[in-house]
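Sat 14:20. Reprocessing the chain from the morning session after the first attempt stalled halfway. Input below, unchanged.
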Amino acid sequence: MNRIALAASLCIFLSRSVFAGLGDSRLDIYFVDVEGGAATVIVTPEGESILIDSGYPDNGGRDRDRILDVLQNVAKLEHLDHAVVSHWHLDHFGNHAAIAAKFKVMNFWDRGIPDLLMEDPGFNDRVAPYRAASQNRSKTLKAGDFLPLKGGTTPIKAQVVTASGEVIPNRGEPNSFASESKPQPEDTSDNAKSISLLLNYGRFKFLCCGDLTWNTEAKLMTPNNPIGQIDLFMATHHGLNVSNNPVMVLSLDPRVCVSCNGPTKGADLETIKTLKRVKSLQGMYQLHRNVRLEEKDQAPVDQIANLAETANCKGTWIKASVAKDGASYTVQVGSDGNPRKFESR
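Finished this time. Tokens:
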């Protein structure tokens, strides 16, 4: 190969490696393993990025480093456009400040920082690094708001459907599962106030509800279904059974579900039973094997990203990648996983 050809090949290789995941007209969603916390990275076809939640602090920077690895080395980003906090529990906002110290964050979004958190007497100390990282200028999201995203050939929008206990107007087709709504005792924790984000990209729909709990899920989805049926669902609250109300899950009728659980947290049997009732479900994924359940009672082994317990966990992520027209998408476990293709609704 002559020098000119070699130089041209090198330029092509560098271009592809630096911009892999950007400019390819695909929408990529990474579910990062933070051992039972939550961290979801979204990269739009226009190269904009969103991080929803950031896992636990401490643990030698484990969760921070796993998120940074996806941002920098996998998605090849140079900065983060939008950092979102779904609610004020430490396994969801614990690394926003630590990430911002190592990686430029353009905008911080949350439901508003409360003066106190009844379930966490140390909240003001815990949230102080976030206040400093955001320079006390984080933006408040309310139900009905949209994140400002750049449009492209295929329309994209990200709507807040719940926040601070409020929900979008209950318009839409009647929810045929409304009769299954059985209220639980009132949840006074911040879980019930979680931000839920509905992402639309062409025909493709993805819903991420933080730790939203049972009664607020019913408030959103009864008597009507204002969201419609979706393609990809992140099991709410790590797949715990105080969330994932059948009145919501069955009405959404997702094609694929991902549980961001830990070895002993989430992917509860009751939630898995609800998911198995979903008429259109074709793929059920978990970030971790639930060590308390038998193999037959959880996702298939090849759809579980991490089989080992925390001490030996490699932190493998799950990725969904949506085609440039939004008409189909793939889901794979880790960088070497076999992508399974699904059609959008």
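Residues 21-339 form a domain with the Metallo-beta-lactamase; Chain A fold (CATH 3.60.15.10).
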